[in-house]
């Protein structure tokens, strides 16, 4: 009997029984109040009169009235850029010890997002919540003795003046508590290797020495790592070397598009747990089985607001119009898309993180990420969100019994008329035209706006099959491999032309 695992599981259960869930709206109000109080003497706090907001009868309403929306570019140009000039107490007290480099999926250059010590602590607490939540799943006691593979970016952070820079997963891993280091794999030495291919090679070489019970990471890179381990050791599946692998913590993107190809690497199913760790903070986690939804973390240094994701509130570039309506947690409805705004203990205020979400359970405060504001394809009124695209691609997988872990598309003009051009990552031997017809029908059935657009300005749908490995190679060519890097699901015409040039070159070489 796994005595130590039973003890650990009992302690987790006891902790959950002793700590009752706080009233959600009260918790959010308290988080906002604490943040305003702490930041009231910063340059930002003085400019927007946080002290006055704190005296208001309705602090949340006063905050929404006095402080405008910020996307990264606006907040960086007006405020965060001062941190790089040596100023302190800008949007949060002191100077941040870290900046998270967001490789992201949008924008032409990386973002540098401040990560304060308060945010490091917030992420640490969220990680403990995630581990604690595993007691809600049907896992044997000995699972809690197994090692955890955290497949993020390099922990070898770069010193830049008075701070260090790296991706958020690398910053988090470099700050893991000492008591957890015995469980953490691949370990700080391997995790500090900068080059993705070299790091994964070392993981493959060392894999036989570990007893992995859980893996966390972005699906596309996790798949590539598992494939490398299988190839290196000549295995049929990953359970032949890690028989106790039972939990996969997905993050960054929806897992469903990868489900079929991921499961092909396993001997038996594992429990998939969704998490929402962004460069700006750890926002939500799945805390129960039988769902793919995640519970917002409402008492941990992040205040949430929600803008209805409607065309009248959103500009073509994905930004929010000034007159857009904003809702607090108490005002949201289920199954409606919202643009997420966050204020954090890293000094982000009413910040457009770029994601759209929907509440799958309002009472439980559970959400799903439905897409990116900049990946909302609405050039000719088709109003396609990423979740609709994912659903349509999943229908293709089921209809033709194939795997399509990656895709990208753009609205392109052919002879002056708009068409949707899709690239599907698949090895399936099916005619492109059949895939195009099935994809078109699936989207018409799922989205009435798309159906109307197809009868008018959207003239056609084109599908091109390419090997799935081209997608990570594209990411590697444009940014770097691994870590938080995610593939663009929707491109503008300029970026799409670069993608097509890249594909042509790779297929001809």
From TrEMBL:
Q: Does the keyword Membrane apply?
A: no
Q: Which residues form a coiled coil?
A: 15-42
Specify the GH3 C-terminal domain's residue ranges: 390-494
Keyword list, A-Z: Coiled coil
**Residue ranges of domain GH3 middle in the record:** 296-363
| Listed PANTHER family | GH3 DOMAIN-CONTAINING PROTEIN (PTHR31901:SF9)
Protein name, as recorded:
GH3 auxin-responsive promoter family protein
Q: State the organism of origin.
A: Autumnicola musiva
